[in-house]
C-alpha cells in the first residue's frame, strides 16, 4: 500500500476517533493533517442510535472540526437500501431509538408503534432505549412472517470501561427466540463507501478505510476494493488481525501511529492533489 497516494480517508468513530467523551491518540491531529494537505475525510459509522446533528455536536464538543457532509451513517445507508430494495408501500416496526425513528419518518417511511397487521418488516438498530416490550413485539411480527432487517451486525460498542451490546447482539436475542436471521444493511456492506465516492469523486486506489473492527470496518473496505487500516484502540487486536478472514492492509497502534506513517510516506512532497488539479 502506498500511503502517499491516499486522498480520501474514511474513518469509523467509536473505538477509532473516540471512546465516549475521550478523543483517542492522534485522532484530531490525523484529521487536521488530512485537511491541511488537501485531502478529504468522511466519518462512516454503523451507530444508528443518534443522528448527524448529535454527531456534529459531539465532534465540536471534542474540538474536532466537522460539517454535516463529513458524516455517512448506517441510517443513511438504511434509507438508501430501503428506497432501492423495498416497496414504497412497506410498513416498518423499528427496534431503535427515537432519533432513528424520526430520521426514518423524515425519509418518508411508514412506521408503526405496535404489532399492527399491516407491518411488513421489522427493522432493528443500535437501540440504547431498548425495552423488553420492543423485543416481544418484534417476535410477534417475525412469527407472523414480517421480514427482518437490521442496520448493522456489530456485536458490541466500545466504551471506556469495556463494551456494551450493539445492534448485532440485540438481533441475536431475536434470532435465538424466532429462528430468523436478519439482512444487515450497514458495514460491511460497501454502500457507505460507494456513497463517499459519489460525493467526492475519488475511487478505490485513492481511498483508505480506517477502523477498529475487522468484520465491519475492514470487511467494508475489502468489499469495496479499497485498502484498509486497522487501529488497535477498539475491539480488534493484532492477534485477531493475523488470523482474520478479512485481514487489513496494515495495522497501527492508533491514529497517531497512522499519522506518523502517513507523514513518512509523503516525505517532502507537497499537498495532496486531486486528479486534474481540483
Describe the fold and architecture.
This protein is of the alpha/beta class. 38% of the residues lie in helices and 19% in strands. It contains 10 helices and 15 strands. The strands form 4 sheets. Strands 5-4-1-13-14-15 form a 6-stranded parallel β-sheet, sandwiched between helices. A 5-stranded parallel β-sheet has the order 7-6-8-9-12, with helices on both faces. A two-stranded antiparallel sheet has the order 2-3. Strand 2 and strand 3 form a beta hairpin. The radius of gyration is 19 Å and the shape is elongated.
Brief summary of the model shown:
By secondary structure, the chain is an alpha/beta fold. The protein contains ten helices and 15 strands.
What assembly state would you assign to the polypeptide chains in this entry? single chain
Number of helices: 10
The portion of residues forming beta strands comes to: 15-25%
Helix content: 25-40%
Distance between the termini: 24 Å
Integer average pLDDT? 93
What best-fitting shape do the alpha-carbon axes yield?
elongated
Largest sheet: 6 strands, parallel
N-to-C order of helices and strands: EEEHEHEHEHEEHEEEHEHEHEHEH
Task: Please identify the structural class as seen in this structure.
Answer: alpha/beta
Low-pLDDT parts are: 270-278
Evaluate the radius of gyration.
Answer: 19 Å
Number of strands: 15
Strands side by side in the biggest sheet: 5-4-1-13-14-15
Amino acid at each position: 500500500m502506498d500511503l502517499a497516494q491516499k486522498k480520501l480517508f474514511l474513518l469509523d468513530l467509536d473505538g477509532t476517533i473516540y471512546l465516549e467523551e475521550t478523543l483517542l491518540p492522534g485522532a484530531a491531529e490525523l484529521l487536521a493533517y488530512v485537511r491541511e494537505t488537501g485531502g478529504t475525510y468522511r466519518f462512516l459509522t454503523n451507530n444508528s442510535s443518534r443522528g448527524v446533528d448529535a454527531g456534529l455536536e459531539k465532534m465540536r464538543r471534542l474540538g474536532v472540526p466537522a460539517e454535516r457532509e463529513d458524516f455517512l451513517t448506517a441510517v443513511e445507508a438504511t434509507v438508501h437500501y430501503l428506497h432501492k430494495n423495498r416497496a414504497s408501500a412497506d410498513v416498518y416496526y423499528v427496534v431503535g431509538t427515537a432519533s432513528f425513528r424520526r430520521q426514518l419518518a423524515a425519509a418518508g417511511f411508514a412506521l408503526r408503534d405496535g404489532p399492527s397487521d399491516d407491518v411488513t418488516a421489522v427493522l432493528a438498530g443500535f437501540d440504547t432505549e431498548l425495552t423488553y416490550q420492543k423485543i416481544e413485539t418484534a417476535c410477534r411480527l417475525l412469527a407472523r412472517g414480517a421480514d427482518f432487517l437490521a442496520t448493522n451486525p456489530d456485536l458490541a460498542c466500545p466504551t471506556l470501561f469495556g463494551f456494551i451490546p450493539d445492534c448485532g447482539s440485540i438481533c441475536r436475542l431475536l434470532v435465538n427466540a424466532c429462528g430468523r436471521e436478519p439482512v444487515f444493511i450497514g458495514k460491511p456492506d460497501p454502500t457507505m463507501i460507494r456513497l463517499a465516492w459519489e460525493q467526492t469523486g475519488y475511487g478505490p486506489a485513492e481511498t483508505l478505510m480506517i477502523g477498529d473492527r475487522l468484520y465491519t470496518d475492514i470487511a467494508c473496505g475489502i468489499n469495496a476494493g479499497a485498502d484498509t487500516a486497522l487501529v488497535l484502540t477498539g475491539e480488534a487486536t493484532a492477534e485477531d488481525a493475523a488470523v482474520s478472514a478479512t485481514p487489513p492492509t496494515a495495522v497501527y497502534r492508533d491514529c497517531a501511529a497512522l499519522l506518523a506513517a502517513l507523514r513518512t510516506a509523503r516525505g517532502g512532497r507537497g499537498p495532496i492533489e486531486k486528479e486534474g488539479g481540483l
